[in-house]
Amino acid sequence: MKLHVKMLALALACLIVGGVVGYVIGSTIGVVPMVEYERIKSAYDDLSAKYNRLISDYNNVIAELNALKKPLKVGFIYVGPVLDYGWTRAHDDARKYLEQIFPWIKTIAVESVLEADCPRVIDRLILDEKCDVVFTTSFGFMDATYEAGVKYPDKIFFHCSGYRRRANVGTYFAEFYQLYYLNGLIAGALTKTNKIGYVAAHPIPEVVRHINAFALGVKEVNPEAKVDVRWLFEWYNPSKAREAAEALISWGADVLAFTEDSPTVVEVCEEYTTKRGKPVYSFAHYSPMLKFGPNSCVSGQLVHWEVIYADILSKIRAGYYTNKNLENVDYWWMLREGAVELGCDYGVPINPKFIPMLKEKYIDHPEFGRISIYDLVMKRLEQMSEDTVVFDPFTGPIYDNKGRLRVEPGRRMTHDELWTIDWFVDNIIAEVPR
Amino acid sequence: MDYITEFIAMMVSASTPILLAALGEIYAERSGILNLGVEGMMAAGAAIAFYTTLFTRNIVIGLLSACIAGMLLSLIHGFISITIKSNQIVSGLALSMIGLGISSLIGRNLVGTPLRNSLGIVEIAILSDIPILGAFFRQNTLTYLSYILTAILWYILFKTKIGIAIRMVGDNPKSADSIGINVYAVRYGCTLIGGVLAGLAGAYLSVAYTPTWIEGMTAGQGWIALALTVFSAWNPFYALIGSYLFGGIRILQFRLQPLKLSPPLLSTLPYLFTIVALALLNIERIRRRIGAPQYLGKPYHREEAWM
Predict the structure, then answer these.
(1) Which of A302, B157, B171, B226 yields a CA-CA distance of 20 to 30 A from A327?
(2) Average pLDDT of every residue of chain B
(3) Closest Cβ opposite residue B210 in set A83, A229, A242
(4) Do B219 and A231 count as a contact with CB atoms less than 8 A apart?
(5) A430 vs B217, B255, B258: nearest CB
(6) pLDDT (0 to 100) of residue B301
(7) CB pairs below 8 Å between A and B: how many?
(8) ipTM above threshold 0.95
(9) What is the spatial distance between Cα B20 and Cα B218, in angstroms, rounded to a whole number?
(10) Which CATH number fits domain A71-174: 3.40.50.2000, 3.40.50.2300, 3.40.50.300, 3.40.605.10?
(11) Which residues have CB under 8 Å from A177's CB, separation 6+?
(12) Is A195 at the interface with chain B, CB within 8 A?
């Protein structure tokens, strides 16, 4: 063989051997890193998933912390001036109180808002003032509040005295009829002429309900007494309130109650009692009015809106109320919840000047036997303040003043019936205007 | 009998504020100045009277400050309608809003404060014992003042030279000017009288009738006074009668309610009467007889001599 042929064969052999060896080595080395890589990658994925979870948890905590630091912005929309000495002032006093007790809220109030302007005021509160919660405090704001709930589904709205609710719109009201009933008990005991007057603003169910509750109280202690009503057809007109009160006094009334937004009736009664020698007694409405009638104002109705507002806001803060679950949230709070108080001033359920008179006057009561008026009032007050509310003035039998049986014996009127009441009980000689 | 006496007493006290305001407005309008700001001047008067009476404990100071407040507000109207010769209707309406605004500003912290020394009822010895008519003499001092003012203002307007000058300025300022009456001075004077009495009318509400301050307590009585001015055919004596008619309707509202007479309908009656009066006053013969101010609401431009 020629030398170069040998060389070629050797080179070929080398090439084959080298290739085989190279292949074997190469393949062995290649398999090991793939397995290792897969293992490391899965470990890495695990860790990164854990990391992401931790990060998102951390972010949530931070967000919650920030939410706790960020105040809840609450807007109030009022129908009247904050100094009307009645409705709007009571709401505004509650707002100021809330700012004191809850450091985590910031409030803003807009007063004297016309019903037609309500949607724009809500827009302003939500968009400019960045309110999280908006309270609207007039029946006339109901539709505007509901529409705003549709327009801003992530905000929370509460409407006072209405009935339209949705996922983010709730309703609330502090109801007085129990107090009017208690005032009626006192009025029935105090009257000497058996004529009792009532100055009323508008013939709406709320006012009709209050007049009825008052008359039911009168009837319980004095079935002889009659209640007559004069309508102002205005919430607010002091001169007319005076004229209506004087018309009732000249009819012979010697006790007056009222539902309108000024202390005029109390003043007129004080004037007759102290200056004209003709005692006429009265009951404060909505605000403490004892100072207007120290000698004639016997008791009255006071409101504590702050109780309702505090409940709503702390539940929103705790996440219990959200923009998804207010469909059935309707506050209809009375004595039991502490939203209303009997009295002509805070902490004065009955004017001390009248307590001896009421303690000395006894009646024979079908439920309690012989009992003084003062004890009867306190007993009923206690019964209605209990958790189970063992007594309700609107319990049958109740006849209207046309002689029709409206509530069967033993039955209590329902919330809906009371909400739409449009007839007078049988010891009222007036009629509900149509 | 008692019922009627009581009714008359309430009617008179309910009518006093509109009578006082209308008496002032009669003078303003007789001189040709239509001041629609009565409601505002009354509200400001009511707030200031309440404020000063509360802090000085002196009703006279309270009443005087109400008069001054009404006067200052009417001065604005006088300046705009007499000196600048601008539109009196716009100025008057603006004045009524300014007055209401000022009143709620002053009254901000007075809401819910009772007034201890309000103006009470003073019975005049022998007169108050007359059956029925005695009711006129069981009133407060401001009501007695309104009787006296009606007589004095009627006398001045119809029986004195000053009255002739005032009526002439309202009827034909040019000829008044030509006989040497200072048209601007007369108009200013009458506008100020209107302001003073409107302020006093407001004070009556806040220190005598319903002694409290609450925002918007005039509740449209200024507008009724304006209606009364036209209804009375710019005559103080008729204004007295008209105010008792309007006041009587107000009182009746609550007495007739048991008879199912609609109160909103009754409360429109003063305005209905006024429309009827306006229609009658448009009849030329009646207009002549009564002497309605021909130049009412029109500014007077004095044509200066060139040479």
Answers:
(1) A302
(2) 88
(3) A242
(4) no
(5) B258
(6) 82
(7) 101
(8) no
(9) 14
(10) 3.40.50.2300
(11) A209, A210, A212, A213, A334, A393, A394, A418
(12) no
